[in-house]
Design goal:
- With 336 residues, the protein is mostly helical.
- The chain has 13 helices and 2 strands; from the N terminus they run βαααααααααααααβ.
- The chain has a domain of 206 residues.
- It has a two-stranded antiparallel sheet.
- The radius of gyration is 22 Å and the shape is globular.
Length: 336
């Protein structure tokens, strides 16, 4: 009897082939097939607060902040070639600007959050601008050190409450406003960033990542485009910091915590680098998981690390790429 080796072969679903181009759509079924994953993410995020109690609603608010940071990290790393570990700096700068304006000048959160978002992004970009000529690990190290610099500067000068922080800040009106402000901002940021990377700006940024010397030789100021990209990522991070200071009505040195630099990277790895929506999904999974493991004490870090290691070893493409492949393709065994 002949023996054959067998292997799995991946094939596109027929509807996937028909829907591959937008202009090839010729039925509502095909249009729904194309839009279903996006609608699932949007509707899922908007409906999530309705099924959670107040404790887990607060956890999902934190997940939204991490999602913004992870989206910014993925944008800079995969489309610009800048591995920025300064997420904690974005959170700290945005949080302190918003908190100080509220505590010292009496401005309401409706005013302080937009000011802190734009002003904090401008300050963060100005701080990072001299470092943009650095590449690879050198830029990553410098951006990772900046939050530490901010912490020790506040302690040394004894400003903004020093180690005790500032309390009794104005909070958002209610839990529903808290929830939907961050959810809507995540969805808007995801939509805007995805549009940007598909426009001329995204084309130039990818060219800078692949071969910055060739782009420079074309007469394009690559530093100016990198500054724009950093400003876009900083906008999302600074909004997260400003929102966080009014979420808990308090600001302190914990806004510069390294969790805001490390967890977004883990969320990006889990969700799928280069997908933009993947890091958002990764943050939504990772933050509640981290909170659920809190009861294990120090063992939580071990379990947390094992889960991440499993994704890196067995699902390096991330959750979103895996689900996308299963959605658009099927597998069957064939003889070799």
């Amino acid at each position: 009897m002949d023996t054959f080796e067998r292997r799995k072969k991946r094939l596109d679903r027929s509807i996937t082939v028909r829907c591959r181009g937008l202009y090839a759509l010729n039925s509502w079924r095909e249009m729904l097939f194309l839009l279903a994953p996006r609608l699932l993410l949007i509707v899922g995020l908007l409906a999530m607060p309705l099924f959670l109690d107040m404790y887990w609603q607060r956890v999902m608010c934190a997940a939204g902040i991490y999602a913004l940071l992870a989206l910014g990290f993925d944008f800079l790393a995969e489309y610009v070639g800048l591995v920025c570990l300064g997420g904690a700096m974005f959170i700290g700068v945005g949080g302190y600007i918003s908190g100080v304006l509220n505590a010292y000048f009496g401005l309401p959160p409706l005013v302080t959050i937009p000011i802190a978002t734009i002003g904090g992004a401008a300050i963060s970009t100005l701080i990072l601008s001299p470092c943009l000529r650095l590449r690879g690990i050198y830029f990553a190290i410098v951006s990772f050190m900046l939050p530490l610099f901010g912490v020790y500067l506040i302690i040394a000068l004894g400003i903004f409450g020093s180690t005790e922080g500032i309390s009794a800040l104005d909070t958002l009106p209610n839990i529903w406003v808290e929830q939907y402000v961050i959810i809507i901002m995540v969805l808007i940021s995801l939509f805007v960033v995805r549009r940007l990377v598909n426009e001329d700006l995204g084309l130039i940024l990818r060219g800078i990542k692949d071969n910055d010397q060739a782009v420079r030789a074309s007469g394009i100021d690559i530093t100016a485009y990198r500054i724009r990209a950093v400003f876009i990522a900083a906008l999302m991070g600074c909004f997260g910091g400003a929102y966080l200071s009014h979420l808990y009505g308090w600001l302190g040195l914990s806004l510069f915590a390294m969790d805001f630099s490390i967890l977004p990277i883990a969320a990006t790895v889990m969700g799928g680098m280069g997908t933009l929506a993947g890091p958002v999904i990764g943050a939504i999974f990772l933050t509640p998981m981290s909170e659920a493991l809190r009861g294990f004490g120090q063992l939580r870090v071990v379990l947390y690390s094992v889960v991440l290691l499993g994704f890196i070893l067995y699902r390096p493409e991330g959750i979103l790429r895996y689900l996308d492949r299963k959605y658009h393709q099927f597998e069957r065994w064939e003889k070799v």
